[in-house]
Design goal:
heterodimer, A: about 250 residues, alpha/beta, 6-stranded mixed beta sheet, 4-stranded antiparallel beta sheet, 10 strands, B: about 260 residues, mainly alpha
């Protein structure tokens, strides 16, 4: 379970987060929706301890993340998997090496054959076959890179998976595929997922609950239906623009 | 000072403060790398890969620079010393210049151009494409994984390349001295034996180890501090090369002053 309480963060004069409160139940998918610059990625970086808040706290399965540092923070990060907006695959490594990386770093004594077997199994979860094992990230399409990134995030069987803009820059078919992948990862592996997105269609498809972030504050929070019925003017405008487009 | 000049002065003071802050952060980064260097897991495969990239990759350019530097030094030395009928001292003077100064300094400058810039670019690209953030989220310390192998490889490879430089530089001088300048080989070799002692060689190699560490920390730090996409990576690389070259000359002066004194 992820709990964010009264989270404030500024970079110089720029106040990015202004008292965020939210709660993600174990085994559910929570989407944080918002336009560019609303503070979504900053919020996610606090959850995994890449940033420290000015005020407030983040608890993941009871562990207070901002109080950790060094070895304890490294230990805590083992419960996370993260899919980055640009996939963030290591350029100099093959798909096999990329996906195996978190596992190899945790269990260096694991034989190469076993490592390969586990990588192949995780690639199967994201519908990729053995033929991609020896390819480098530059040889993959955008959608394939996202899938490899998800396989890498899942390889060590994390309790929490964080997705940073997983559908940005993808075509509609690949977007639908990535959405299905997020839902499937939750169902098959029972992970708690937190998705940062500005893609309203994807958000309503994958979310058990969602929050709309505006100007560093939560403008609305609840099930997709509750958010759709929110009286907040920004949420109404944000959703109306999308429904008009449809 | 007029009131109109105040914003410009204030801007300069702020820039100076930012430079000091950056320097301080780089020192802490270097200390952090040293701290991680003695912690497991040790990654010999990454250290060997970096030794190959820095050492083998730079061997050709270092060798070429060494041979031509030795040849030029021999010709210039012969030109100057012949006026005193002392051309027999060319071998010794070239050898002492190479092992104490030119070997370590020119080797470091060549490796900065060849491999230091590559390190800053590679790490800078990893920074702006979130690969370093990804590594952190996978509970792997990026300083431990990326900086330590480059630092340890540099500490080993710089003195090895300096030895190659010294040998090939002297070879270039010998060829020019004996076959072009027609210096008698006996005095050429004999004065080399007289001039160069093992402490001279160790002085040069000691310098090169320090140069390796300094360049590794600066180039890795500029990569880590890169921001803002391709342009930021380019600027980081340029700063890495300029800072490393200046640092080599400053450290060379400081090392020489401390080890041999002012000579008063």
């Amino acid at each position: 379970m992820i709990e964010v309480q009264g989270l404030w963060k500024a970079f110089g004069d720029n106040q990015v987060l202004r008292g965020i409160d939210l709660r993600v139940e174990a085994g559910t998918t929570f989407v944080v929706l918002g336009s560019s610059g609303s503070g979504k990625t900053v919020l996610m970086k606090h959850v995994i301890g890449l940033l420290r808040p000015d005020r407030g706290t983040v608890r993941v399965d009871g562990i207070e993340i901002p109080t950790l540092s060094g070895k304890t923070l490294t230990e805590a990060r083992r419960m996370f998997g993260m899919v980055f907006q640009g996939a963030a695959l290591f350029d100099s490594m093959t798909v096999l090496e990329n996906v195996a990386f978190p596992l190899h770093e945790r269990q260096r004594s694991l034989p190469a054959a076993e490592l390969r077997r586990r990588v192949v199994a995780k690639l199967k979860v994201v519908d990729l076959g053995e033929e991609v094992l020896d390819l480098f990230p530059a040889q993959l399409s955008g959608g394939m890179r996202k899938r490899v990134s998800l396989a890498r995030a899942l390889i060590h069987e994390p309790r929490v998976v964080l997705y940073d803009e997983p559908t940005t820059g993808l075509d509609p078919i690949t977007t639908a595929y990535v959405d299905d992948m997020i839902v499937a990862a939750k169902k098959r592996l029972g992970v708690t997922s937190m998705v940062i997105s500005h893609d309203i269609a994807s958000a309503f498809k994958v979310a058990d609950r969602l929050a709309v972030l505006y100007d560093g504050r939560i403008a609305a929070q609840g099930t997709p239906e509750e958010v759709r019925r929110s009286g907040d003017p920004f949420v109404q405008r944000f959703l109306a623009l999308w429904f008009e487009k449809q | 000072m007029t009131l109109a000049a105040f914003p410009a002065t204030f801007g300069r003071v702020r820039g100076l403060r930012a430079s000091f802050e950056d320097f301080g952060q780089m020192l802490l980064f270097g200390l952090d790398a040293l701290r991680w260097a003695v912690r497991p897991p040790f990654r010999p495969e990454l250290i060997l890969a970096q030794m190959a990239a820095i050492g083998v990759g730079s061997a050709f350019i270092v060798s070429t620079t060494a041979v031509f530097s030795g040849m030029v030094l021999a010709l210039q030395g012969n030109y100057a010393l012949r006026q005193f009928a002392a051309e027999g001292y060319v071998g010794g003077s070239v050898a002492i210049s190479l092992v104490r100064e030119l070997g370590p300094v020119l080797t470091a400058l060549m490796v900065i151009g060849r491999s230091g810039s590559a390190i800053a670019t590679e790490i800078g690209t990893m920074r702006v494409t979130e690969q370093i953030d990804a590594m952190e989220t996978m509970a792997v310390n990026p300083v431990h994984y990326l900086v330590v192998p480059r630092l340890l490889a540099s500490l080993v490879v710089y003195p090895l390349l300096t030895m190659i430089f010294d040998v090939l530089g002297y070879f270039g001088a010998w060829v020019m001295g004996i076959f072009v300048a027609a210096i008698p080989e006996g005095p050429f070799i004999e004065h080399t034996r007289t001039f160069v002692d093992p402490p001279d060689i160790l002085h040069g190699l000691g310098k090169s180890i320090i140069f390796g560490g300094v360049v590794a920390v600066i180039t890795c730090w500029r990569g880590f501090a890169a921001s803002g996409g391709a342009r930021g990576v380019g600027e980081g690389t340029t700063r890495a090369v300029v800072m490393s070259c200046i640092a080599i000359l400053v450290v060379d002066y400081a090392f020489t002053l401390v080890s041999v004194g002012s000579g008063r």
